[in-house]
Please model this.
Amino acid sequence: MYRWFLLIAVLIAAGAGLAIGVLNPQPVVLDLAAIAPELPLGGLVLLVFAAGVVIGLLLFWVLFDLPARLHRRVSRQKGSSGSGLPTRNG
Model:
């Protein structure tokens, strides 16, 4: 079941990327200090979107997932009372 959802999501993303690329073929010059690449507008939009997704996932990992994993590891190393029930601190 999971594979079908993944396949459908990949096909939708590919179709959306193709549509954006085809509907925006105008060349755009991206002026960066040292270089000035000329890219199609659709490609630039998809490139910036992909970079935003990667940076967002990286920020999520650093700000939320990594601290939670470290907290679980520290609490596991401290040990538990052995009863399997949560202990009350304080």
The mean pLDDT is 86.
